[in-house]
Amino acid sequence: MLLKVVILGDSGVGKTALLNQFVNNRFSTSYKATIGADFLTKEAFCGANARSVAIDETLVTLQIWDTAGQERFQSLGVGFYRGADVCILVYDITQPKSFENLDTWRIEFLTQASPSDTQNFPFVVIANKLDRENDRRVATQRAQTWCAKNSTSILPFFETSAKAATEVEAAFRKAAQLALSQGTMQADFIPETISFRGSPANGDSKSSCC
Amino acid sequence: MQIDALWCASIAALLAPFTSLLVAHRTKTGNPPTPLTEQLVAAIYRRAGGYGLAALPFLTITTGYVYVSSLDARSWAASKPKRDAAAQRLRQSAEEFSVIVADSASAAAASAKRSWAEGAPARAEAAAQLRRTASETVVAMERGAQQLARAAQAARDARRRARSSQVPPRPSVAGRPAGAAKTAAVLRLRQRKGGNRRGGGEARGADYALNLLAYVGTFEGIASARSVCRGWYRILAADARAQDLRRFVARHGSVTPKARRALWLESCRLSPCNVVDAGLRDAYADAARRGQEGEWCEAIDTDVPRTPLVLLAGIERSTLASVLRAVAFRRPDVGYCQGMDYVAAIVLRALREGGDSEDDAPPRAFAMLACLLARDGMLRGLYTPGFPEVRRRSYALSTLLAATRPELSAHLERIGACVEVAAFAPWLQTAFGYHAGEAWPYELVARAWDVFLVERHWKVFARLALYVVIVLPDGGPLEEVMPLMQRLEHVKLGADADADASRFVLERALDLKVTRAMLDALGDEFEALTAPAAPASPPPSQPSSPPPPRRVSKPPLHAIPAAPQYSVPPRSNPPPRTDAPARRDVRRPSRARASGPPSPPPFTDL
């Protein structure tokens, strides 16, 4: 099963680093700025339900599209936003501006990708560079508030560090699981999957199912 | 001893009158004179007389001399054994020394002889190598001459046929081996009618000169030919083929870093002289200073530390940032866009390697970039908001790809490879600097830039981009196709590939039949396509505006001329379809032309 994941966020927040940490388990201090779009895949076992056990896990291939972060590049996005199953929004906890731009990124994505269900399209919010906690300028509370008010359900929120590999895996797994549940819901209308959305799945759930 | 005593006595006797005289004198001066001493003195004076007195010193000296010489003679005689011994020693040591010298000389001679003898096979080998390469060169030259003759014959035949059938022939170099492109270019150069043809003899002379220069194939050669002789200067200055010659050399010749610097500066209407104009220096300093407050600073500060080190090659990151800030200040409507750092690094590096000092390179790079980003600059539309030129060029490339390899194009679209965004946009926006130092050596990128700047058109980048996509394998899922396109793994040369490998890729790309007219026509077509869709609409970054029409999925069939003109390359003989199983599931798209050329086999030998 193929899942298309799109990572968005300001320039330099660490999208490429997160992606490489998740796919290759590597971190480098010398990533080039992504121009246009980059692409990586990873296969993972994932279940659709947050509480499900390993029985109904399926092998999914995540096609992850990394993007250029500069605002101008949004105009090129239309091609690969389309058909996305889940979108990951990234900001840098040391850059308040990158957090403030999450709104723009979200609206831009919804406009250009035009998913069938705009209100319930799955997003995952990642606050990156947790290893620089000393320089933090965006409070966790603020981000959680934003996550709560921007969707009918609370957006999953992860604080990660691509450098220290903190929570990266969990965030991507959550994204895959959301995409899966969304896909099954839309494809088969299986009512059980609603249980996840109804569940108080806040951002700190570690998605232990995966 | 007796002699000594005798001498002493005689001297004392001789000196006695003196002594007494002196005594007398002293007594005369110091003490009251006594009649006795006065008488004595007077008696002596009288007795000795003038001669006697005068002879006294003489006698003394003579006797002294004789005495001393006798002493010398005795000591000389006494030292004889010593001297003999010393002389003996001297002789011995001299003999020893001569033996040593002779030994070492013979040893040196022997070793020299030995090493000469040892070097003999190596010398023979080198000589043989020289002979071999010389003979190979002769063979290659003969082959080239034959090729030229054959091509000329073919051109003549084609002309004859064309005259007879009244169909203008379309000379094409596509499909031939890489070396043939050069031959064909020489031929074109020869065939091209100059703007101001002179009389028969002189025209032949000019032909000859241009052919010769084309063979030399360096800008240095052209420059020196120009300065050596007035006739050559006239040919190069007046003949319309001179521009062809420049282009030819940029494409197929060799460009040294020094010539590259001059060429690039010249193509941006900048003086390549050694001293930077003071006005330019001031303008740069001013722009760099005032650019520090722009909105672009944040983006520049984010990106410059991430610009690949392999591309920078010793250029300070602070210099790069300063140039970018100055350019952004000078062209505020462009500002800074990701990708410009690559272009600036390429330019700075070419200038530095061409001999500009650390102080001279930044102002010149600033001027060059400002020129390239000016209102009609060749790179401007790649960075202005909305990226009009990226979309335009991507459309042209996609259409060319669809016309050349319809199956591949359809396949890419089906698997969702966003070729425009994932491949064409980064290639175009960094002018292939995205891969410099990783997949491709810097040399290849610089050579592509040579052609780009001499032709003053992005055609060479179009050809490179098309080449990279065209040689993709036919099938394969997205996971396999994307790494190839992103990291050029199917046409990878490596960062330190030699010049021949770069030349090979460039020649293959230049072999693709893409003309300026084609690209411009496709660009106009894109404008026409998008204009009615969004009449006087704001740039597409506005969320409210409708998304622009998919560029690839809806090419207006009526607007595309007949297929052969746009097919890239128009290969005359279909290659063996060895890769047929790879596209068993490819359905031929509706817009694939019925007479679409068969796809070339993937170049697995790369």
UniProtKB/TrEMBL annotation, chain A:
<dbReference type="InterPro" id="IPR027417">
    <property type="entry name" value="P-loop_NTPase"/>
</dbReference>
<dbReference type="InterPro" id="IPR001806">
    <property type="entry name" value="Small_GTPase"/>
</dbReference>
<comment type="similarity">
    <text>Belongs to the small GTPase superfamily. Rab family.</text>
</comment>
<dbReference type="GO" id="GO:0005764">
    <property type="term" value="C:lysosome"/>
</dbReference>
<dbReference type="GO" id="GO:0003924">
    <property type="term" value="F:GTPase activity"/>
</dbReference>
<dbReference type="GO" id="GO:0005525">
    <property type="term" value="F:GTP binding"/>
</dbReference>
<keyword id="KW-0449">Lipoprotein</keyword>
<keyword id="KW-0636">Prenylation</keyword>
<dbReference type="Pfam" id="PF00071">
    <property type="entry name" value="Ras"/>
</dbReference>
<keyword id="KW-0342">GTP-binding</keyword>
<dbReference type="GO" id="GO:0005770">
    <property type="term" value="C:late endosome"/>
</dbReference>
<dbReference type="InterPro" id="IPR005225">
    <property type="entry name" value="Small_GTP-bd"/>
</dbReference>
<keyword id="KW-0653">Protein transport</keyword>
<protein>
    <recommendedName>
        <fullName>Ras-related protein Rab-7b</fullName>
    </recommendedName>
</protein>
<keyword id="KW-0813">Transport</keyword>
<dbReference type="GO" id="GO:0030139">
    <property type="term" value="C:endocytic vesicle"/>
</dbReference>
<dbReference type="GO" id="GO:0015031">
    <property type="term" value="P:protein transport"/>
</dbReference>
<keyword id="KW-0547">Nucleotide-binding</keyword>
<dbReference type="GO" id="GO:0002682">
    <property type="term" value="P:regulation of immune system process"/>
</dbReference>
From TrEMBL, chain B:
<keyword id="KW-0812">Transmembrane</keyword>
<dbReference type="InterPro" id="IPR035969">
    <property type="entry name" value="Rab-GAP_TBC_sf"/>
</dbReference>
<keyword id="KW-0472">Membrane</keyword>
<feature type="region of interest" description="Disordered">
    <location>
        <begin position="151"/>
        <end position="182"/>
    </location>
</feature>
<dbReference type="InterPro" id="IPR050302">
    <property type="entry name" value="Rab_GAP_TBC_domain"/>
</dbReference>
<feature type="compositionally biased region" description="Pro residues">
    <location>
        <begin position="535"/>
        <end position="550"/>
    </location>
</feature>
<dbReference type="GO" id="GO:0031267">
    <property type="term" value="F:small GTPase binding"/>
</dbReference>
<dbReference type="Pfam" id="PF00566">
    <property type="entry name" value="RabGAP-TBC"/>
</dbReference>
<feature type="region of interest" description="Disordered">
    <location>
        <begin position="531"/>
        <end position="606"/>
    </location>
</feature>
<keyword id="KW-1133">Transmembrane helix</keyword>
<feature type="transmembrane region" description="Helical">
    <location>
        <begin position="48"/>
        <end position="68"/>
    </location>
</feature>
<feature type="domain" description="Rab-GAP TBC">
    <location>
        <begin position="254"/>
        <end position="456"/>
    </location>
</feature>
<feature type="compositionally biased region" description="Pro residues">
    <location>
        <begin position="597"/>
        <end position="606"/>
    </location>
</feature>
<dbReference type="GO" id="GO:0005096">
    <property type="term" value="F:GTPase activator activity"/>
</dbReference>
<protein>
    <recommendedName>
        <fullName>Rab-GAP TBC domain-containing protein</fullName>
    </recommendedName>
</protein>
<dbReference type="InterPro" id="IPR000195">
    <property type="entry name" value="Rab-GAP-TBC_dom"/>
</dbReference>
